[in-house]
Design a protein that fits this description.
- The chain is mainly alpha-helical.
- The chain has a domain of 194 residues: Substrate Binding Domain Of Dnak, Chain:A, Domain 2 (Up-down Bundle).
- It is built from 8 helices and 4 strands.
- A two-stranded antiparallel ribbon has the order 1-2.
- β3 and β4 form a beta hairpin.
- α3 crosses α5 and α5 packs antiparallel against α6.
- The longest helix is centred in the middle third of the chain and has 69 residues.
- The protein starts with 5 loop residues before the first helix and ends with a helix.
- One of its GO terms (molecular function) is phosphatidylinositol-4-phosphate binding.
- InterPro entries: AH/BAR_dom_sf (IPR027267), AH_dom (IPR010504), Arfaptin_fam (IPR030798).
């Protein structure tokens, strides 16, 4: 070959008798290495460290990182790309920007719908079910309010009957000439108070069940309905935005915007379809649960009221046993948390 490789040159470096490298041959080796290296790398940019042959370490070539025709010395360690470093402040700023843009689009859609200028997506069957649910909720709330009023009034009447019975019983002991008359009235008022407490327990159980249905079950479904309506507004807002872009010119500047708008429209369409399906499922289960709960509670309310005003104490007590209602004994405090364990 016309030019020897650095390996052959290195193999021919003479050494002295004590194992040290002959300095007179070092310049020749560097000259040969310079010819063998690529043209973009100079000898002045490379450091060669040689050791004696008695050392187990080989020669180490240290080269700086090549940056625009110049080499700089780098330290050992992991390499971190600056482009991969994420700034938390920039991420928050980007989230705020997206939220502001989304809010602007939704607000514009709501205003256009109220002014009658914008179009909205309507599921007639689902919207009808939602309207019925909201109307029923108002009616159930009215029934709940009236039942609570009845419970309060019945509690006051029972309390008065109990006090009246105690007064009659006291007079029965102190008025010997009217002992029997006062005694009859005392027994009657105490019996009415006892039956009133039984009816009060049934009414309070009815109130608790209807309250759970109205303020928890129905309210949970209406929260899903609100999320569905928000998803519908977002869907219509991005649909309108895409339609406006499609009506405009198509060039190198508008095509990327149309593609991005198409992507955002598809994302919100999937969200809207998912929320619409969730609302349909919840309305179906709510209807089944509502029928079951109200059927039992209305039967309880009717039987308890009918037995109370008919004076049928046995039937009244049987009604409470049928629905597993336990009455609180008057004058007895609720058990402590230690007793309930």
């Amino acid at each position: 070959m016309a030019q020897e490789s650095p390996k052959n040159s290195a193999a021919e470096i003479p050494v002295t008798s004590n194992g040290e490298v002959d300095d007179s041959c070092e310049h020749g080796f560097n000259r040969d290495l310079k010819h063998s290296l690529p043209s973009g790398l100079g000898l002045s940019e490379t450091q060669i460290t040689s050791h004696g042959f008695d050392n187990t370490k080989e020669g180490v070539i240290e080269a700086g990182a090549f940056q625009g025709g110049q080499r700089t010395q780098t330290k050992s360690g992991p390499v971190i790309l600056a482009d991969e470093i994420k700034n938390p402040a920039m991420e928050k700023l980007e989230l705020v920007r997206k939220w502001s843009l989304n809010t602007y689009k939704c607000t514009r859609q709501i205003i256009s719908e109220k002014l009658g200028r914008g179009s909205r997506t309507v599921d007639l069957e689902l919207e009808a079910q939602i309207d019925i649910l909201r109307d029923n909720k108002k009616k159930y709330e009215n029934i709940l309010k009236l039942a609570q009023t009845l419970s309060t009034q019945l509690f006051q009447m029972v309390h008065t009957q109990r006090q009246l019975g105690d007064a009659f019983a006291d007079l029965s002991l102190k008025s010997l000439e009217l002992h029997e008359e006062f005694g009859y009235n005392a027994d009657t008022q105490k019996l009415l108070a006892k039956n009133g407490e039984t009816l009060l327990g049934a009414i309070n159980f009815f109130i608790a069940s209807v309250n759970t249905l109205v303020n928890k079950t129905i309210e949970d479904t209406l929260m899903t309905v609100k999320q569905y309506e928000s998803a519908r507004i977002e869907y219509d807002a991005y649909r309108t935005d895409l339609e406006e872009l499609n009506l405009g010119p198509r060039d190198a500047n508008t095509l990327p915007k149309i593609e991005q708008s198409q992507h955002l429209f598809q994302v919100h369409k999937e969200k809207y379809d998912k929320m619409r399906n969730d609302v349909s499922v919840k309305l179906k289960f709510l209807e089944e649960n509502k029928v079951k709960v109200l059927h039992n509670q209305l039967v309880l309310f009717h039987n308890a009221i009918a037995a109370y005003f008919a004076g049928n104490q046995k039937q009244l007590e049987q009604t409470l046993k049928q629905f597993h209602i336990k009455l609180k004994t008057p004058g007895v405090d609720a058990p402590s948390w230690l007793e309930e364990q």
